[in-house]
Amino acid sequence: LVVSQRSWPHTSVSQLCLELNEPTVPLVQSWAGQHGDWECVTSAERQPDGGREILGFLWNRAAGVELLPLPAPPDCAGMIPSNGTGASCRVPLLVRQFKVGAFAFTAVNVHNSVNEMRQCGRPSPPVDVTGGTVELPATCTPTTEPVLRVAGGWPVLVLGGLGAQAASALGGLPSVLPPEAFTDIGKEKPGGSRAADGVWVSSSVKERHTGGSAVVRAGLSSAWIPDGWAWGGFVSDHCPVWAEFFTD
Question: Are 195 and 180 in contact (CB under 8 A)?
């Protein structure tokens, strides 16, 4: 099961899925073994906060991952965080139920772009609200209860980026990554400086964790990616993270 974020255009996730199933890139074609049978699902083209970022899930049916045919919660059923002053904002979610072997769970894809832009020194855009706009609060701190509510009582995995400050707010959901695991990357700090992304799980999922998890830093730059006026940039300032769980 793969989680994608900050995708654009809307077809980019399905294009990635097609490349996995029918590879045209020589490096992907050279992968050994079976490439799998991949499917995908994405969030709405326009998010409830006015943004156009696409959230997505990709899963390999050949590996036994199954999307359950259950009514999906609305993508806009996001956490309603508070910045401590009574102001609040809505963080878009993509929520789906999956089954792998005997393990059925709710997967929550979340990307708190508000905190990310604040931490990077960029002003967050105003949000369209019934014909007007409203500035988002300085920080958006998710809480555990709304996440469990959209999970519908199922074992839950929260996957994605919450922002370095907000990550600690999911205290009721332990992370499978150590707190010192930085998840960003850049030319000046290739080892990272922020623990902004991760995998947070409910207690029943935590029991299934094999102990395996890591931040991926290799292979994220290319001579074909611009880096300002130079080349050799990174595909993203976020590193992929992975975690492994028992399914039977």
Answer: yes
Domain ranges in the chain?
72-245
- Measure the CA–CA gap between 180 and 21, rounded to whole angstroms: 36
Query: Could you give the CA distance from residue 81 to residue 246 in angstroms, rounded to a whole number?
Result: 32
Most confident of 12-26, 65-79, 132-146: 12-26
Q: Give residue-wise pLDDT tens across range 96-133.
A: 999 999 899 999 888 776 544 444 333 444 333 222 23
Where does residue 122 rank: exposed (0-12), middle (13-18), buried (19+ CB within 10 A)?
Answer: exposed
Q: How far apart are CA 193 and CA 233, in angstroms?
A: 18
Compare 217 and 248 and report the one with higher pLDDT. 217
Q: Which amino acid is at 236?
A: S
Angle value at C-alpha 129, between 128 and 131, nearest 5 degrees: 80
Amino acid (1-letter code) at residue 117: M
**Overall pTM > 0.85:** no
How far from 154 is each of 57, 104, 167, 210, CA to CA, in Å?
A: 18, 8, 21, 20
Q: Where are the beta strands (DSSP E) in 43-126?
A: 54-60, 65-67, 93-100, 103-111
